[in-house]
Structures are given as structure tokens and as C-alpha cells.
Prior knowledge:
The structure holds 2 protein chains of 2 kinds. By secondary structure, chain A is mostly helical. In chain A, 76% of the residues lie in helices and 0% in strands. Chain A has helices spanning 3-31, 36-40, 48-57, 64-76, 90-126, 128-142, 146-160, 172-207, 210-217, 222-240, 242-259, 265-274, 278-306. Chain B is of the alpha+beta class. Chain B contains 16 helices and 19 strands. In chain B, the strands form 5 sheets. In chain B, strands 1, 8, 9, 10, 11, 12, 13, 16 and 17 form a 9-stranded mixed β-sheet that branches. Chain B has a 4-stranded antiparallel β-sheet with strand order 4-5-7-6, covered by helices on one side. A two-stranded antiparallel ribbon of chain B has the order 2-3.
Amino acid sequence: MSFLRFAARRLAEMAATLFGASFVIFGAMYLAPGNPASFLLSGRSASPEALKAINAQYHLDDPFVLQYLRWTGQILHGDFGRSITYRTDVSRLLADRLPSTLLLVAMALVLVVTLGLLLGWIGAVRGGAADSTILVSTTFALGTPSFVAAVLLQGLFAVKLGWFPTGGTGDGLGQMIWHLTLPAVALALYLIGMLARVTRAAMLEVLGQEHVTVARSRGVSDHRVISRHVFRNALGTVLTTGGLIVSTLLVCTVLVESAFSVGGIGQLLELSTTTKDFPTVQAISLIMVGLFMTVNLVVDLLHPLVDPRVTLGPRRSAA
Amino acid sequence: MADPQDGSRSRSSHRRPALPLAALAALALVAACAGPPKSGDTGGGSSYQLSQDTPAAKGDIDSFSWALYAEPPTLDWIAAFDYPQNTILSNVCESLMRWTPQLTLAPGLAEKASNPDPTTWVYDLRPGVHFHDGSVLTADDVVYSLGRQLNPDNAAAWAQQFQNVSTVIRTGPLQVTVKLIQPDSQFNQYMATAAGVVAAKAGVQAAGKDYGTTGSLDCTGPFELGAWNKGQSLELRRFDSYWGTKAKAAKAEFRFLTDPSARVNAMITGEADGGYLIPTESYERLRSSGAGSLYFGEGLSTVNVNVTNMSGVLGDARVRKALSLALDRSGFVKAGLGGAGTVTGSLTTRAAWAAAPEATRKDAFEGLTPTTPDLARAKALIKEAGAAGKTVTVATSPIGQDVSLLATAVQAAGTGIGLDVQLKTIAPNAFTSLFTSAEAREGIDMFPETYYDSITDPLDLLANFKTGAFQNYAGFSDPAYDDLVKKATTTADPAERFAIEAQLQKIASDELLWIPVAEWPTAVFMNKRITGAPTTISYMYYPWAADVGAAR
């Protein structure tokens, strides 16, 4: 299968999955109790006319299928609708908040990949005390949920030592990076532990394999064996977890953003769910699913480059 | 969530190492971020004192920053019905009347409000008042602004307050006359809230559907809207052409800090100079931090347990009374409100009656629900009602310790007198829906709620028990009560009205549709740099930030 055909096929699959996901997302909001109109009125006595006006404005009285079709139709035109609570276009809400979240996830991702691989490498190759230290610290990292990490980091580095701000995002890239460091560490900690463990295990497994022993017996240098054979093999493993790492980051960003008051889309999702702001929740969910699938696609496309043994498509004969 | 094994068919040679990994990763999604931590700190039972204000500012400052627990979705005044939006909006947009820090009614943009006959209100506007865009306030702006609340298409938050309005017309370049369908003693009082805000017609029209979410608010207040960094912060700038006393701070920055502990941390580290609505569990931490001072003021708020189901065992007034008699109110105040609160048997706060004649106020607070536990009597009542062993379901939520500890207190009270009290834990977002959705209240007999008045009049709360009222969760209906509500609404004379309201308070108290528990003051923290903010709930509609200045 040619690369282009493979990519096209995966894109088509992605579109179909997104379509399915959109239905599930849209339907899910209707199953939960409560009506957005009543949230908008937040406990106040509402005249029947006011309720009617809200329902009409947001088409809340229309049959489910009609609402769904209208929504998907709008999205295809790049219109995510109008937020009920924020009384503004959802696309604008997202444009305001997406940069913080993307930067936060990107920073966490860099931490996860560099530290995770490095610690895994050191643990596998060095062994001994270094390995034990890494095992203990990764156990700690794996046992620390992001919200606990958030509280600990905030208490120590923001309140006690005053090195970082307690929350918020700040203006300008430099300020943003400074503000997002603690949240990124809180977000990354668990995954660093996980990736270090996985890398270590994968490298140890390859280290014990025949071809490594053969290479070594042929006099290939240790460094070369590890970087060429062992680490590259482990890298493939890391790549297969890429989608999972990113999706974990996206899911956990909701809590970390709340803990550090980072006004990203994670926090927006939490607030919009609380107020049953249908258009906003649906848009964010769909974007999260889309991001997750994009990462998966990129991983699939990159994989053959890292590991030549991996082929595109289900069978070689299909090419 | 997508299948973690997605795409594995294309790399069958790598399936083995992927398997434990998938398990690990699946675990990651669950374990890496389970629910947020909830403070288990029950706080010390510290004493507190109410004060009307904080030391006056000694001078001007460049800026101060203020912590808010949430970002306002919009600052359009017709949608301003919650703490975050009102805390900001009160400094930018002004109303016809003004609520003072002492919670009394004073002239605002109208320098005179007269009531020539029971169904007419005439507002004479202050001359020479400038909007933030420089234009001058006219009667047309008032007609337009009130008109937005009246238009059903706008689904205004304050529509209910305009239910008796028939027309709003200009009767002079600086005079507006409001005609009512029937007398409404509350209408003019609500003109001090966001219901009475006046903005420039031209500005609002030009902003169109984006009004309130971007650009200027085109109002007259001591501050104008500056940069709004969505999701993060919002800046107010001093308005130099303000008609009244100019703001002491050139800039006020509001920071949206949704997490309670992050908010308190920001105040301790000085990232935020102060804030209202301090989490009750943090009172001690803020006090002992030495970073600044914590003040308490009148909040016009009461904490209650609302009865939502009269078809169950709570339909018997004796059972409601027994529960109330068994409730450890002072224990709740200590633990749930961080010691800052007053046990009460009244649904309305004492301050809501501030303008009432002394005799009426005494009358209103006489013979109310007893607040000292009387278990013997409570047990007797349960026996009499034949309710022993019957089940009562109370909703609780990790939304805040005032809610969860009150629910636990009700359970303890019920268990102590032979009721089977079940706690039903509800996620914070679903808990909020209890207030608005009958569906969400199904299977629940009662839940804790804190209620605050938007005006200094007990009727604001007492009208909730009128037949068909939105918050009349129990479906209480008593024609005599309805008549009294109507009478209070149509009685202009305050003394006469308060007397009727005292009667309403008696009935509501006897019925125990909401079990009153405590008065809850507002709290405000300011660090050593700033001072001047009022302590009372007036900050919802009074331009409080203009009073904030240098502490030294």
C-alpha cells in the first residue's frame, strides 16, 4: 500500500469515527438531567415567555435528530454555534482558551518524552543504584495523581519558596511558560513515571535478545549497540503509546487547569458541563476527540520511519 | 475514549509489549486524575465580629488585584445575577438607585425618585453624567436600558422584577416615568440592583450580540472596562470623567481563580491583594498567614435546609419541626461556616429588617423556630406523627463544606430522633441543578441551600413560598399567604409593609418549608497594601472598588 493511499484511508476512517463520536457526544448531553435554559435562569423565577424565548433562540424544543443535524451542518461550515452561558460564539471562546491548553499540553509532552526516555534509558543501561533510585522515584510518580501533584507543587514551589506563581497564565510567551511550568510538571509527573518504566522494560527486553549478544560479540561498541538497536527498538514502543500519552494529557488537563486556575479549554469544559452549556461542551469534546485521533494518525504515519520492520496497511500484498 | 489498541493490526510484530502498556495507560487515564481534593479541614471554632466597613484608604494607588472564584460569562447587565459578574459590574455600570455599604437605598443615576401615585415612578436624572465613551446620559438611554430587561426575547435575568411594569417612557430630557400595572413596593428597591442599570443606547446597539463579552460596556461607573484576557483576568481602568468621587486606584485587576486553595494561596503570596467570598475552611489560614486582614460584614444570607418533597414523611409538619428541634445549629456554624455565622431560627436575616420599626422587628423575630436542641420534644413529635423508622433522603455534595456538613448535621439530628436519614451524594454540577430542575429533585426530600437577598427587604425571600413560586420546591400553597404577599407587594408604606412581612415570616416559620439554620456573613480579605472595600454584600451593586486605596 502506498503511503498516500494509507494516509487517505486513515483520514477517511478518522472522519467516520469523528462523525460517530459527534453523535455520541451530542446524545450524551441530552441524557443528563437539567435544561440549559433553567441554568441560564439560575434559580430565578422565570416568566414562561422568557423560557420560551431561550428555548426558541437555542432551538431547545426541536426534536433531537433535527438539533443534531443542524449542529453537524453548522460544524461543517466551521460554525460551532453560540454558547448559552457565555452568550458569544463558541469558536471565539475556543480561540481565546486553546493557546493556554495547547502550550500546557506541549510543555508536559516535552517533559514526559525527554525525562521518561532518559530515566528509562539510564535505568536499563546503568542498573545498580541508579536503577533502584529511578524505580523508587517512578513508583512515587505513578502513585501521585495529577491533582495531588498540583497541590504539592503549589504548596512547595509557589507558596513556600515563591519561585512560581500559584496560578493563572500571564501574558506573552515567556510569562506563559513561567506560569505553566508547575501545571505542566503536575500533568507530566505520572506519565514520566509510566514512560520511564515502559522504556526501561522494553530496553531490557531487547538487551537480552540474541541479536544484541551477537552484535556485542562482533565487537560493536556498547554505545552503538544501545543507541542503534536497543533504544531504537524502545522508541518504537514509545511511539505506540504516543496517542495514549496525549489523550491522558488532554483528559487530565481539565483537573490541572482547575487546580492552577489556568483558563484553558479544560477548565472551560468543566464549567460548561456544570452549566449544561451544550454548544460549548460539544465543541470541546469533539475537538478533544479530533486531537486524539490526529495524534494517533501521526503516530501511525511516523512509526514505519522509526522502525523499518513496521509496514503500512494490513497486509503487504495490498500494496 | 478511543480504543487504546487502535491501529495495532498494522504492527502485529509489536503486539506483545503493547499489551501491558495498554493496561498501564488505561490505568493512567483513571488514576492520573481522579476527582479534585476536597479539604477535610473542619476549621477551628473561631469568633468573629461584623463590621460595616474596613479602614478608609489613606491615598491613591496605581493598581490592585482581586481574586474571583469564576469568570463572568458575560457582563451584560441584563444577565448579571451571580457573584462574579456583579462584583465586577457594580464598578462599571450604575443603576438609577444605589445600594449603600450600609445596605440602605440612596439616589444613583436618578437624583430623585418620586412615587406620585401607587402605580407611577418618576425618575429625575442627574445632569452632566458622562458615559465611558464621552456622551452624556439622557432619558432615552434609560428608556432603552430598562426596555432591554422588558423584552422577552432577551430572556433577561431580571425580567421577574419588571413583571408589573406596563410602560417606561421619557417625560423630559432628563426624566423617565415608569407606569406599573399594579403597585409594586419592590420595584424601586430593585432599581438599585443590576435591574436598574443604565448604559448608553448607542454603544449597546453598536456592539450588537457581542455586547457584554468584548469591548466597552458603555456605562457611567467610576471604572471602565479594560483588557479582558478570557479565562484569566479582567482589568478595570479609572474613568476620569466620572461624575462622583473618583476611584482611588488607577487600575483594578480581577483574576479568575477557580480552585479555592489556589485562590487562598494567591492571596497569601500577594498575587491577589484581596477578595470576597473566602472559602470558610480558609479563614484560619488567612488570619494566621499575617498577610492581611479578614473582615466580616452583613451578607443578607441565611443557610437553610429546603424541604423539596411533601408527599413523603416530611409532609407532616410535626416531622419537620422535630428535625429542626434536633438540629445542632451551633455545631454546624463552628464546623461548616468556620465559626463565622450566627445560629438562627429565622429564614430572613435581621439586617433585612433594618428599616422596620423596632416594634415590628421585635414582632417578626418573636416565637420563631427554637434554635436550642430539644431532643425529648423532638422524639415525642416523631412518635406522635408515627414517623419512627421512616426514611428521609437528604442531598449532599462535595461542592463546599457548608453543604456537606449541614447534610451530615441533618442526618445526625434525624438519626437521634428515630428517623432513617439517608444521604444522597450528588456531583457538584448535578447539585446546582437541584435549584432549577424538578427532575433532578426527584427522590430527594431536602437539601441545604444558602439564600441571599438582592435588596434590603425580607419579601425578597418570603415571596418564595407563594403558590407556584420558582423556589417553592415543596409546592406549598396557602391562599392566605398568597394574599399577604400581594398585600406586601402593593403596600408602599415601609412600616405598614414590614408589619405584613412579619406575618409572612410567622407563617413560613411555622410551616418550616425551609428549616433555617444560620445567618452567614460575607467575608472580605485585603492584604497589608490595600484597604477600603466595604464588608457587606452591597459589593454586588455598589461601586466598592472605587473605595479601595493605599493602606498606608
